[in-house]
Amino acid sequence: MTQPLLQVKGLTKRFKDRTVVRDVAFSIAEGSCAALLGPNGAGKTTTISMLAGLLQPTSGSIQLLDQSKPVTDRRMFIGYLPQMPVFYPWMTGREFLRYAAELAGLAGRDAVLKTDEWLENVGLQHAASRRIGGYSGGMKQRLGLAQALIHRPKLLILDEPVSALDPAGRKDVLNLLQRIRLETTVLFSTHVLHDAEEICDEILMIREGEIALQGKLDQIRREYSEPVIRIEVGGDPVSLKWMASISSKAFVRQAEITGNRARLTVTDVEKASFELMADAVSHQVAFRKFESGQSTLEDLFLKVVQA
Ligand SMILES: Nc1ncnc2c1ncn2[C@@H]1O[C@H](COP(=O)(O)OP(=O)(O)OP(=O)(O)O)[C@@H](O)[C@H]1O
């Protein structure tokens, strides 16, 4: 069993009379990659800021553990990249990273060596002598990652690391995170499920400041996947009337019908497909689309978020 690296209990943050993070509890095992997933305003940045030590919790505990022993030097243990990292645009990439290395406690030759090593790791060696003001969003984010990792932290915490990037920048940063996660435990926040699915093995879904769902991605996928049928019919009165009647079928557990489209959660996908088709043919319904399969994590995410 892998050791927990981070243990959070009862974490709560109130701003004046408003509670924006409420009784959040989770733990992150060494070597895992966890996504804190939630819609805008769910409380991701507030939670991450408390974990990074930038915001004082109203109550609750955050424990960092190294081989089961409490960590005292948080600065060396954690690498952190905020949602909007601030760079000095007049500095070169190399100057900035050297400065970051010194701030992280590295000195002299060690700082120089680490600076070069990380410029190369994030693919910025050729741009190292250029001013950051001329960097693209993806380059800045890679520089931010190098800054967060230069002191070899055990835990890397990132707040929406790819949200502001174009598809190419996003891919660059996700690839880099994929590589890093082989040796560093990663926690990152995102409101994009796809980003979480791409590199993470654990998810924590947060909604209105509370954890709505958490666990291993595979397990959640298995546990919550349900047989689903999606139908689209023509806009004629006969088809629409039939559509409005299908939610009462015995095999339909849940129906979301909007006009000529329906998404049905059913008990048995084969039986339901057969009966729906036979019924539609006998009523002369104009089918445009009929799709059967399992619900996706996206369906679950939307359900959790919209609940
Ligand atoms: N300093 C503050 N004072 C008062 N309310 C705050 C403060 N910081 C955040 N909030 C509120 O707390 C809630 C959660 O904000 P937070 O930034 O943590 O959400 P988020 O999930 O990171 O959202 P986003 O994806 O938009 O960044 C929001 O309603 C926000 O307005």
UniProtKB/TrEMBL annotation:
Q: Which is one Pfam family of this protein?
A: DrrA1-3_C
Q: Which GO terms describe its molecular function?
A: ATP binding; ATP hydrolysis activity
Q: Which residues form a coiled coil?
A: none
Could you confirm whether the keyword Nucleotide-binding appears in this record? Answer: yes
Span of domain ABC transporter = 6-233
Looking up InterPro entries in the UniProt record yields: AAA+_ATPase, ABC_transporter-like_ATP-bd, ABC_transporter-like_CS, DrrA1/2-like_C, P-loop_NTPase
Q: Does the keyword ATP-binding apply?
A: yes
Q: Which domain of life is it from?
A: Bacteria
Q: Which PROSITE patterns does the protein's record reference?
A: ABC_TRANSPORTER_1, ABC_TRANSPORTER_2
Q: Which Gene3D superfamilies does the entry mention?
A: P-loop containing nucleotide triphosphate hydrolases
Q: Which UniProt keywords apply?
A: ATP-binding, Nucleotide-binding, Transport
Q: Which family does it belong to?
A: Belongs to the ABC transporter superfamily.
Q: Give the protein's recorded name.
A: ABC transporter ATP-binding protein
